[in-house]
Q: What sequence folds into this?
């Protein structure tokens, strides 16, 4: 419990009660109990996101620049450059080497004006060469493609009969191990490879 609170006079005036901050005294007949203070009303998610974006913009977060970058840099320049650092009021932008680096240096003042016009407190913009590789595949995409080719998929590989146990099993398992996954597991358990 919090050590901060306040003394409140009871409604009957015969005693004083100490009520911690964040709590309220609630009467139930002759009994008084402490109950948590009423919660503020819920805020809609879109209002929370708008408030967060406004806070990011005011506090100069790089995340706000990342979000607005395609509109700030324009459709031709944005895919070839990206904001790298925001240190105080200095924004460092990295660009692909060659013509894109030159284009960004040439349009540096226009980009700075667009960033300032969007409400970001940026005083200067520095351009540096940045070798940006392709973005890594998302884990969801990778697992989805692995699952699509997995040998246990009957809908992809069809059904076959296991030569060891005679049970129906996915044909992908037969092609991979020469028998079904149950026989494969039994084989690994016998050799001690399965722990």
A:
């Amino acid at each position: 419990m919090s050590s901060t609170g306040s003394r409140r006079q009871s409604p009957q005036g015969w005693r004083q009660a100490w009520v911690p901050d964040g709590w309220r005294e609630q009467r139930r007949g002759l009994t008084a109990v402490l109950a948590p203070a009423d919660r503020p009303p819920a805020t809609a998610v879109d209002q929370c996101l708008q408030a967060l974006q406004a806070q990011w913009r005011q506090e100069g977060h790089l995340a706000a620049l990342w979000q607005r970058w395609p509109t700030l840099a324009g459709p031709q320049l944005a895919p070839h450059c990206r904001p790298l650092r925001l240190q105080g009021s200095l924004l460092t932008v990295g660009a692909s080497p060659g013509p894109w680096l030159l284009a960004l240096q040439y349009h540096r003042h226009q980009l700075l004006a667009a960033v300032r016009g969007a409400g970001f407190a940026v005083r200067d913009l520095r351009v540096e060469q940045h070798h940006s590789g392709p973005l890594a595949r998302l884990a969801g995409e990778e697992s989805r493609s692995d699952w699509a080719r997995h040998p246990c998929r009957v809908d992809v590989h069809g059904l076959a009969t296991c030569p060891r146990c005679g049970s129906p099993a996915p044909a992908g398992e037969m092609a991979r191990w020469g028998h079904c996954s149950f026989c494969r597991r039994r084989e690994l358990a016998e050799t001690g490879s399965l722990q």
In short: The longest strand covers residues 81-87. The chain is about 40% helix and 25% strand.
